[in-house]
Design goal:
Number of helices: 22
CATH architecture: Up-down Bundle
Order of helices and strands: HHHHHHHHHHHHHHHHHHHHHH
Helix content: over 70%
Shape: globular
Radius of gyration: 23 Å
Distance between the termini: 37 Å
CATH class: Mainly Alpha
Structural class: mainly alpha
Number of domains: 1
Strand content: under 5%
CATH topology: Growth Hormone, Chain: A
Number of strands: 0
Largest sheet: none
């Protein structure tokens, strides 16, 4: 293990810095092109003729990110968390360089696809890496801070685009794109001194190295109670989840005793909901929507869009501080309800096609971003890595994040066409989808707040083995797991052996 950052607080700070810088880039790259689409020098360089071509240019990044998730699914478990983050940054450096130097649309698209490959790996690996190096008491808040930095990145991109829009040269669009390289270089340097995930090490039989990482991250001796309990929980999870064919790619789709298939489905659908909320209609095309739908001038639209994007990280402050208190399920439920109302009001106000009502609709863009930033933006990213069993965590996270990017691709591809062709009716589509998500969350998503990563397995075990069989509406606690084992007259070791026998 590299010792560049020492132990304890300094080492944790280095891990947080690497993860936050990676997600700051994630947000920056998502937002940077939206403020450049109306830039006269950008348009002069690429001569983008139609909304269809615009959709292809913007969405090519999402398609690259989807294939980055596929690559992570194939090799992520083999290489480990740190090496995958380095691979992601290598793709990003190459892609950002190509975008900055682009002179034709194919050149620009290739650069965006390569950058997307890196972002797909980055977004599949970093939340999982952070989760596996966090205590359960603050895991939700730490991963929420990563999502907060997505919002910071988007806002930063908007305001940098706005500032450079006053530069009367091609530097007005090349410089904002080139700034991405700074974030990638920071991550490359910081990750060098960060440890590998103890869960990944333990799974590969490197138990002592895993124990050393936990001791170093939390600055504890090997015989400390927390270290001993953490290693016991990790080893129990490995024994519980290990079964014939576990190393195969198809293992994540098995309906085994810990319900791996269902848990992968929950993680995937969480980020499906994230994208089908309509967020990337707002992130990528808000200036376009404000000019075409609301009727604002280009300069005023860019200025207002910048302030609207500020609502994204402001909303994210709530889960960043309190998600581990307010819980995952209710945050998603209330978020979807609030976003449904926002989309309904946008459709109603824009349908009148009058200056007064169109101007009033801007209020609901502000409210939408505030609610999204504090709810459905954050929870799926936290929920996915923690709901997945250890054996399926790398591949399952890659599958779930692929939902983010493939549906991101679809929304970004069709949004300029929808805005141009059906206008205000676009918002009705997302209103209906958001309303449908509410009962789905209620019935199918169990609460995971304050549970250790290994304790979450207990939610999905059959009742005969002390579990709840995935009952979403019952709040499961570690104490319940102990009580259920006691009621069955079993120790942890006996429970593990029973589980192994059930699999056989």
């Amino acid at each position: 293990m590299a010792k560049l950052w020492g132990r304890g607080k300094k080492l944790r700070l280095a891990v947080y810095t690497a993860c936050l810088a990676a997600f700051l880039f994630f947000g920056y790259d998502q937002g940077v092109l939206s403020g450049l689409l109306e830039n006269e020098y950008f348009q002069e360089q690429f001569q983008i003729p139609s909304d269809t071509v615009t959709g292809i240019v913007v969405s090519s990044y999402c398609l690259g990110a989807f294939f980055g998730c596929v690559l992570c699914f194939m090799i992520g478990e083999k290489l480990g968390r740190r090496k995958m983050i380095w691979l992601a940054m290598a793709f990003i450096v190459v892609g950002a360089t190509l975008q900055t130097s682009a002179f034709t649309i194919p050149h620009l698209i290739v650069g965006r696809i390569i950058t997307g490959l890196g972002t797909g790996i980055d977004s599949s690996t970093v939340p999982m890496y952070q989760s596996e190096l966090s205590k359960k008491e603050w895991r939700g808040r730490l991963v929420s801070w990563e999502i907060f930095f997505i919002g910071i990145g988007i806002v930063l991109a908007y305001w940098i685009d706005y500032g450079f829009s006053f530069n009367e040269s091609h530097a007005s669009w090349r410089t904002p794109i080139a700034i991405q390289l700074i974030f990638a270089i920071v991550v490359i340097i910081v990750v060098y001194g960060c440890p590998e995930s103890p869960r990944w090490l333990a799974k590969r039989g490197q138990t002592e190295e895993a124990r050393d990482v936990i001791c170093a991250v939390f600055d504890l001796p090997p015989d400390d109670e927390y270290v001993v309990q953490e290693m016991e929980a990790i080893n129990m999870a490995i024994n519980l989840e290990r079964h014939e064919g576990a190393a195969s790619w198809t293992s994540v789709f098995k309906d085994d005793v810990v319900k791996t298939r269902r848990r992968v489905g929950l993680a995937w659908f969480g980020l499906f909901m994230n994208q089908l909320s309509g967020i990337n209609l707002v992130v990528y095309y808000l200036p376009t929507a404000l000019t075409s739908s609301v009727g604002l001038s280009r300069d005023i639209a860019l200025l207002i869009a910048g302030f609207i994007q500020l609502m994204f990280p402001i909303g994210n402050l709530l889960p960043a501080f309190f998600l581990d208190r307010i819980g995952r399920r209710w945050t998603m439920i209330w978020g979807c309800a609030g976003l449904t109302i926002c989309m309904m009001m946008l459709a109603v106000l824009l349908s009148f096609n009058r200056e007064a009502t169109s101007s009033a609709s801007v209020t609901f863009f502000f409210l939408y971003m505030l609610i999204f930033g504090g709810t459905i933006n954050v929870v799926p990213w936290v929920y996915g890595p923690e709901i997945l069993p250890l054996d399926a965590r790398a591949r399952g996270t890659a599958i779930s994040v692929s939902a983010h990017w493939i549906w991101n691709f679809m929304i970004v591809m069709i949004s300029p066409i929808l805005i141009a062709r059906i206008q205000w009716k676009t918002y009705l589509i997302f209103m209906i989808l958001l309303a449908v998500f509410i009962p789905i969350i209620w019935w199918f998503y169990p609460e995971t707040t304050e549970l250790g990563l290994e304790e979450i397995d207990q939610i999905f075990l059959p009742k005969s083995m002390g579990g709840l069989e995935g009952n979403a509406r019952v709040r499961f606690t570690p104490q319940m797991a102990d009580e259920r084992r006691a009621s069955l007259g079993m120790s942890k070791d006996e429970m593990t052996q029973k589980i192994e026998n059930e699999k056989v």
